[in-house]
Amino acid sequence: EPLEERPLQELYFLWRLAGGDAEAELRRRGCLRAKPPICTLPCIVLLEGDELVQRKDSVFFFDDTIVTLPTEQLCQRLKGMDPALYYPLIESEQDAPASPGSANGLSNAAALPIVIREKDIEYQLQRIILYKRLLEAYPFQRQRIVREAKLDIPPLYRAHIWAALLDVQGDLLREYEAIDKETPTPTDRQIEVDIPRCHQYDELLSSPSAHAKFKRLLKAWVISHPRYVYWQGLDSLCAPFLHLHFNDEAAAYACLSTFISKYLHDFFLQDNSLVIKEYLAVFSHLIAYHDPELTNHLDSIGFLPELYSIPWFLTMYTHVFPLHKIFHLWDTLLLGRDSFPLCVGVAILQQLRSDLLSFGFNECILLFSDMPEIDIQRCVHDSIRIFCSTPQSATFRAHAKPGSQPQDPLGMSTVPLDVLKSELCPRISAQDLLGLLELSRRDGTKVRLLVLDVRPAEEFQRGAIPGSLHVPPGNHAQWTEPLRNGHMVVVVGSHKDYGSAVETANQLVRLNQSRVCLLHGGVEALRTAGLLELPPRGAAAAGQQ
């Protein structure tokens, strides 16, 4: 039968989904026997640590007994599967088998929550067969793997799929073995202190073997990245990769290194204060962009991101959530840009929004000292929504990995940290504004855009952004009310008097206006490209009425 041709690890995975329990089978055959814990204590323990009298239980001895696991239930569950599903063709798009989310696939299962899909044996069989073929064709089929991962990732092949999403390639074992992981280093002591506290609820990671692997992986990363130092939290960041690649340290190391390079560039510098402060400033802007009411409340009680979010970002939430939630979160995070973790942070705050708005400073501190239960699927869904509704340039960071952000004459440039912190909302590039204007022109139902030009009237008359509304600074009462209808608001000023634009944008945020941003570089960014036009006669006066 086709099932007999599948790899043993797939069969065992499916057997467990079908209700199989290896420990129960071994216990039934007498290979496992329960023993009261008190009977395992030694009678005498010497100062040197030797244990006497208590005989070692035979259960710890090697046993070459072969136990055949019953497969009747598994075969019965998969009896009705179409044999053609076992041999997917992936050479071309038209040959590709229908994904479970398509009309011809297991669409009903694909619509279920991920935790249910992972328990559906028929659905998982179809997914692991497809992914097995795609992984065999990696890196040629990497883009197809990325597309399929947007639907979901089967737990059985998560380790290999993550490596493919991170584009890990090369002779990983040779590179890993070339690193000196034995010579003592100044960070050894801190690593040894941190490891026993890292995800110790997990049986695998709490084992002595895992602790030894942890130490080798962390030392390898520190030694091979001389620009960086070991920061507490790196062990938590390593945990998901070690758990998935437990028997392949080289792959775990390669994934960890690539992940940090993409999502945490320069976070582990000895002096990472500028990197962290800029990241938190962008995070604050993103909160204000999507939820100004929450921003205003948290600011009023002095509960700033510095007090709660640094462990989130430094460990990419591995210090906050248990591993099973991290797996589902990172399944999506690995598909996004380096700004996606910021969107996850906003999604967490929005899930706790009702509590945060009613709490004072002390209550907020207590809330985050022991993170309440978070619906991770809702968090992922909200993160995607936030990510897709945020202009890419709004999350620009000067300290991001070089090449990770688009380079364009109408794009972003470095903003001093003190200036960034004085602004309550994000900046967007002229390139993004032009794209939004074009999208709004084609379909105003998708993007409701309002461009507010706060320059003096004479400057506005000499050239303005098409469709912009001229609003002199200070006349807030005349134009804030019409903004309550869901518009995205871009405040435009001039380079020589950018403070007026900042003041107007900050005022809008304080009035709980969502989706407010500033045009980076002022109107001059568009003038140099010849993209301004003369406004209609009376447009400036209309804006003042």
TrEMBL record:
Give one GO term, molecular function aspect.
GTPase activator activity
Family annotation (InterPro entries): Rab-GAP-TBC_dom, Rab-GAP_TBC_sf, Rhodanese-like_dom, Rhodanese-like_dom_sf
**Top-level taxon of origin:** Eukaryota
Q: Which UniProt keywords apply?
A: GTPase activation
Domain Rab-GAP TBC, first and last residues per copy: 152-337
Instruction: Write down the Pfam families for this protein, in alphabetical order.
Output: RabGAP-TBC, Rhodanese
Annotated Rhodanese domain residues: 445-535
UniProt keyword 4Fe-4S, yes or no: no
Is the keyword RNA-binding assigned to this protein?
A: no
Give the protein's recorded name.
Answer: Putative tbc domain-containing protein
Query: Organism, per UniProt?
Result: Ixodes ricinus
Taxonomy, top ranks, is:
Eukaryota, Metazoa, Ecdysozoa, Arthropoda, Chelicerata
